Amino acid sequence: xxxxxxxxxxxxxxxxxxxxxxxxxxxxxxxxxxxxxxxxxxxxxxxxxxxxxxxxxxxxxxxxxxxxxxxxxxxxxxxxxxxxxxxxxxxxxxxxxxxxxxxxxxxxxxxxxxxxxxxxxxxxxxxxxxxxxxxxxxxxxxxxxxxxxxxxxxxxxxxxxxxxxxxxxxxxxxxxxxxxxxxxxxxxxxxxxxxxxxxxxxxxxxxxxxxxxxxxxxxxxxxxxxxxxxxxxxxxxxxxxxxxxxxxxxxxxxxxxxxxxxxxxxxxxxxxxxxxxxxxxxxxxxxxxxxxxxxxxxxxxxxxxxxxxxxxxxxxxxxxxxxxxxxxxxxxxxxxxxxxxxxxxxxxxxxxxxxxxxxxxxxxxxxxxxxxxxxxxxxxxxxxxxxxxxxxxxxxxxxxxxxxxxxxxxxxxxxxxxxxxxxxxxxxxxxxxxxxxxxxxxxxxxxxxxxxxxxxxxxxxxxxxxxxxxxxxxxxxxxxxxxxxxxxxxxxxxxxxxxxxxxxxxxxxxxxxxxxxxxxxxxxxxxxxxxxxxxxxxxxxxxxxxxxxxxxxxxxxxxxxxxxxxxxxxxxxxxxxxxxxxxxxxxxxxxxxxxxxxxxxxxxxxxxxxxxxxxxxxxxxxxxxxxxxxxxxxxxxxxxxxxxxxxxxxxxxxxxxxxxxxxxxxxxxxxxxxxxxxxxxxxxxxxxxxxxxxxxxxxxxxxxxxxxxxxxxxxxxxxxxxxxxxxxxxxxx
Amino acid sequence: xxxxxxxxxxxxxxxxxxxxxxxxxxxxxxxxxxxxxxxxxxxxxxxxxxxxxxxxxxxxxxxxxxxxxxxxxxxxxxxxxxxxxxxxxxxxxxxxxx
Lengths: 733, 98
Prior knowledge:
The structure holds 2 protein chains of 2 kinds.
Chain A: H1 4-7, H2 25-41, H3 50-62, H4 66-90, H5 95-117, H6 119-129, H7 134-147, H8 150-168, H9 175-187, H10 190-219, H11 222-243, H12 248-261, H13 265-269, H14 276-281, H15 285-295, H16 301-322, H17 330-350, H18 356-370, H19 376-391, H20 397-413, H21 417-433, H22 440-454, H23 456-482, H24 514-530, E1 544-550, E2 556-562, H25 563-571, E3 577-579, H26 580-587, H27 591-602, E4 610-613, E5 624-627, E6 637-639, H28 650-679, E7 681-683, H29 684-695, H30 703-715, E8 719-721, E9 728-731
Parallel strand pairs in A: 2-6
Antiparallel strand pairs in A: 1-2, 3-5, 4-5, 7-9, 8-9
Helix pairs in contact in A: 2-3, 2-4, 3-6, 4-5, 4-7, 5-7, 5-9, 8-10, 9-10, 10-12, 11-12, 11-15, 16-18, 17-18, 17-19, 19-20, 19-21, 20-22, 21-23, 21-28, 22-23, 28-29, 28-30
Chain B: E1 6-10, E2 16-20, H1 21-24, H2 28-35, H3 41-45, E3 47-49, H4 55-72, H5 86-96
Parallel strand pairs in B: 1-3
Antiparallel strand pairs in B: 1-2
Domain Cullin family profile (chain A): 375-602
Pfam families (chain A): Cullin, Cullin_AB, Cullin_Nedd8
Protein name (chain A): Cullin-3A isoform X1
């Protein structure tokens, strides 16, 4: 006796202490075993001794009667299976499957018992003669004698398929029985399962779903159809888990996907009144989510959905940005863009599983249509301006961040970021100088965001503006500390702005009232005294003033006006009536500004501190102005409408445009030089490409413009053309 | 000891050995006898008769069952076999598939 490892090495020779002499020994022994097999099939095994049977089989094999034992087994089992097959064939209608199942269970049990008692044969005789082991033999015999029996084979398949069909049409079937039968087919080998069931099952299913989808597509709207398709798909998957081979799941879902979705994809997406576009318009998250999940299963499904969505967003966006009505109100315009973005963000997050490719499609669509309108940068800046002026009052910090983040998102879509910068600078300057910023934190937060987005260079000037504001405060304190005698009389607040950081305005000085200009002179000498080598020039067009006024009936008001308006009003301290010409002469305010300022003083209802003759909406060159003694207001402080940041008029727009173009030139040149310095030699197309890439974060460089800049650089001897290949440029150090 | 957990092995001479089922199942043949579906008499009675195995050998076999379980659980000791028993024991081992 030894443990199994060692035993394998030596063959145990058959040796029997009792030498069998009886020539009928084999027959007798086989009779015992044959009888036992009959008994087992007849459920009569309880009296049998395992040991005895095993010993007999053992001895038969040992005495070289293995062949006899094996063929005897095949014959006996075949005979039994033929009987069984017959009784199954005789089963009526619905009992057929049940009988089959019962017999199968019997056979299995018998088979196991037979295998156990014949185990010695399995171990030695079958292995050395390479015959089929008992258990497998039993399955093969069952397959050949029962399943392949001509009267059972087709009947079985038809019955199974009919049951599936009945279940599909809503009947309840005996799933347990189904499962057992299918399991039997699988036990007989996966090829049996595939040939006897799976293959025809898939074919029949394809036919079924082809018909059904045709029916649905004719009578259902898209959402309803998808619901049905989804239900069918789930049903099939459920069917697989209940009684089919797990490997069939992919195959049957494939069939459903192909017949119900792939074949009708375009019809579904473009379905009139209920297709994808309608779902998007009506925010049908559930339907959209369903469409996403179903279409994801078929090739090109998602790309179809995505393409339709993209073209829809582009269409909508294009209408939005080119609608002349919308252009009238920049804030509303941007708000609409944000709303649209929110809408699709929500759709993508709640219905499209936050699919990256959809997000990219959304982004590219926005980028596409926002840049269709050249005024988008301006409008976005105006939107920020509006929010930072008043829109953020009473809004919590987090909400401010949210709004700013959204604005940044739109900003990212802009190709002409430098145009935005230009406008943003102007608007920021107006906000800072008029003290209209609501929240310093919000302002700075946006600057930080711009900085992270576009780099230091982009925001350095904007930050410079904030620094100037801060320094100016200190300077004013210093000024009043060194001039204590100025406590009485008008107060002057000067903001010293660094040239370059602020948007340049043509500096047209007007004539300030005498008391003011004296004060200004004092400040100038103080400032130049502390900072040598600087030059101060007054930007009267950007200032504001608070003045106290007493009207006819003694009512006193504090008027908050622009510097220009202050100059005009101060004139009325000395005279009651002034003509337009007189005012223009005395103040030297540029005509367009003067008209605007007079209009806001004389023509706005409720704020008309001046009276005009003749009464009309517009300011004419021959008009005359009086103090409006009848002016009343329920407020003590009256704010006269100053010129707020507005959408630019057409010529102004042209002007800004021109300035932007002007600013781009040195940037393009710098980029060209940078690139050429590292590359030394490069051909035309590559330069254009690299320059465009480098400047992308700021604006989309125009190739013709780049070409012009290159030519200019050649003229100035930074570059030269190659003598042989004229398309090649060389850098000249 | 619970009757369900033991099995009675009877030698050719009629000696009875009551051992743990777990130990007896070291033999693949006995395992099949006790676990085969349907109701062979062995399963019903919980006893197996070996008309071709002598008491001496069956005793040695029972000893081997217990030794084998110990060996399998990591206790490596020698299993001593008297030379005169070797042949018969080997034949029994073949029969019992041990």
